[in-house]
Amino acid sequence: MIDTRSAQGRLDRTAKTVTIADLVLFHGHACDGLLRxxxxxxxxxxxxxxxxxxxxxxxxxxSKNSPCLGDVAAYLTGGRVRFGTHRLDENLGVxxxxxxxxxxxxxxxxxxxxxxxxxxxxxESALLDDRLVxxxxxxxxxxxxxxxxxxxxxxxxxxxxLLPSRPRDNYAVRSVTDAVLPPPLHVARxxxxxxxxxxxxxxxxxxxxxxxxxxxxxxxxxxxxPWRERYLAGPPTR
Length: 238
Hints:
By secondary structure, the protein is an alpha+beta fold. It has a single domain (3-192), classed as CATH 3.30.1330.130. Helices cover 35% and strands 13% of the residues. It is built from 8 helices and 7 strands. The strands form 2 sheets. Strands 4-3-5-6-7 form a 5-stranded mixed sheet. Strands 1-2 form a two-stranded antiparallel sheet. A hairpin with a 6-residue loop joins strand 1 and strand 2 (11-12).
């Protein structure tokens, strides 16, 4: 994936590799939902971007309001609810809609129905329902045991079914024409992508730019004239 280089920076085309381990650290734990989301996004990226890095400064994503799927969506696309680039649709299920903001090109990925065992899905939903205990259907001690059992069954499925598969085996990707995305929950100006399309400097190159391994951000490097004087004079006033 690629991003802008600094808070006011232009697009940095040096790609970064993100792993499942990175997603786990961001999300807080590994789980079937996180891995299914990662497989879905992998399948979409293969079709939509043909192996090219995802530009996290130029994507809008739609997911359901799931902790797992929402975190995959935000981390891998750069979508943010506060900027209106991460939107919610409870009808999506395990899948995403991803739109290139600058062009409107849009793709959707969906999980093959029935691939994830309905019994596990039913237990996942039931164990999040406090009424199981308050209505006397199970007691709290039994619920503690069933949560552990469900976790074991989830991981058995991950190891025996999901991990041996390929993303495209069970996640279908299609291009969406004239896509209408759900409305944003909030829209604020995202300032770190304002200059994403700015050209490269012709006369001054930051020592902190990509490829300058000698300079570390902790080093105080002076700016050479004439840009030092220009900068110290302060920005122009309107």
